[in-house]
Amino acid sequence: MDIQQFKYGADNLGYLIYSEKFCIAIDPGAPDDMAKFAIEKNIPIDIVTNTHNHADHTKGNSALLKKTNARFIDCTTLSQGQVLDLKDATGLEVMLTPGHTMDSLCFKGDGFIVTGDTLFNATVGNCFSGDLESFFNSLKQLMALPGNTLVYAGHDYVLQSLKYAKIIEPNNPNLNGYAAAYNPDHVVSRLSEELKVNPYLRFNTSSMIERLKEKNLPRETQFQRFSSVMEVF
Predict the structure, then answer these.
(1) Matching CATH number, 2-198, of 3.30.70.890, 3.50.50.60, 3.40.190.10, 3.60.15.10
(2) What is the pLDDT of residues 172-197, one digit of tens each?
(3) 84, 97, 209, 214: which could join 92 in a potential S-S bond, CB 3.0 to 4.6 Å?
(4) Model pTM?
């Protein structure tokens, strides 16, 4: 199983997950480039789906479906633990991750995860659903994955997110190294790196708890700490 990233618009990222004989398009905002890549690899695009139903992620669905014989799978019909079969490779597992939107989900592959607007590299999505507790539980689910899991997000917000992370945790020694490793042509990080720099995943660290204490913010439970970081920073 392999993954190919496609940038479109100002900062959106879409993906092809493929094996030798099968391919799944996720958030296909670059339909021309995706179709061209599949032709060059001599693999059919069999499935088109999305991480959630915001227009910037679904805008390429129709165009890619017209260019291929793919079938469309509405992401709202997918269920926790469901596996999208790649036939000749390990399947792509669905993880329901409500929070950014209530229909948000992630796709877990062999050593990587496509996170849409739930988890970005160096930040997280806005909680447009208003359900902060669901968002917290979704991020906890992702945080439990192996540390070497590669995080492929739905947008490239890395540089601006690192500036904000520096404001939140000015003494975090890991931020400079993370910034130096950033490649705008292939935006990815490991989960272990996110746990070191992403302020919205660091609600259990002593440095973040101290920051919340300085601001006299609720911090007794994990959810209180997460809520404080999300609502104040």
Answers:
(1) 3.60.15.10
(2) 999 999 999 999 999 999 999 999 99
(3) 84
(4) 0.96
